[in-house]
Amino acid sequence: MQPRQLTVCLGQEPASLYPLDNPSSAARSVLAAVYDGPIDTNSYGAQAVILERLPSIENGDAQLFSKSVYVGDEVVDASGTPVTLAVGVKIRLANCRSDACVIEYAGTSEIQMDQMQVTFNLLPGLTWSDGEPLTAEDSVYAYQVAADPASSGSNYPVDRTWSYEAADDTTIQ
Questions:
Q1: Distance (Å, whole) CA 86 – CA 171
Q2: Which of 137, 135, 138 is nearest to 124 (CA)?
Q3: pLDDT band at 152 (very low <50, low <70, confident <90, very high)
Q4: Is residue 130 a contact partner of residue 111, using CB atoms and an 8 Å limit?
Q5: Distance of alpha carbon 160 from alpha carbon 170, whole angstroms
Q6: pLDDT single digits (tens) 32-87
Q7: How far apart are the first and last CA of the chain?
Q8: What 3-state DSSP class applies to 116?
Q9: Radius of gyration of the chain (CA)
């Protein structure tokens, strides 16, 4: 197979192409040409690229469960910030979807909060450039790289993820 060449015209050269390092607009342009998905934005909407579909509550790929929490547990507070549950932390109890039901935790008992489980299904037959299959374990490895304290860049999704596991060769939860 003949090597293929890709030319990307930019106003400046990217300082880095490491995708987790808050890439510049020039780097994002190159990365968008090289990497595909898993989700792209087109016409102001999210579109699945290497996934069978976008997970949602409506299609059942995202589900909410009540989880018991108590002082010292890691939770997400009412403003969406990961915190350690302590007296005075403002939280949303299970099934709370508005600011009207936010409470200040009193620390006297176990409470129920929502936890979301999301299932991502890779399209069948995906391969790397060398022909090797793309698997759910590859996605788990990418998550582990992003979660490593030595990795730079935003920890926003990592800080809000309790676990990230391969359920089988093409399914991540």
A1: 35
A2: 135
A3: confident
A4: no
A5: 23
A6: 877 777 888 878 889 999 999 999 999 999 999 999 999 999 999 999 999 999 99
A7: 37
A8: strand
A9: 20
Map out the domains of the chain as residue ranges: 37-55+119-172, 62-116
Contact assessment for residue 116 and residue 64, using Cβ atoms and an 8 Å cutoff = yes
Give the residue carrying structure tokens 């607009």.
25
Which residue do the tokens 């589900």 mark? 63
Q: Does domain 37-55+119-172 have CATH number 3.90.76.10?
A: yes
Q: Which residues pair with 168 in a beta bridge?
A: 171
For the CA atoms of 119, 124, 129, 135, the dihedral, rounded to the nearest 10 degrees, stands at: 40
Kindly tell me if the per-residue pLDDT of 106 is higher than 90: yes
Strand, coil or helix: what is 26?
Answer: helix
The string of pLDDT tens digits covering residues 113-135 is 999 999 999 999 999 889 999 99
Q: pTM to 2 decimals? A: 0.82
**Token pair of 47 as six digits:** 């579109």
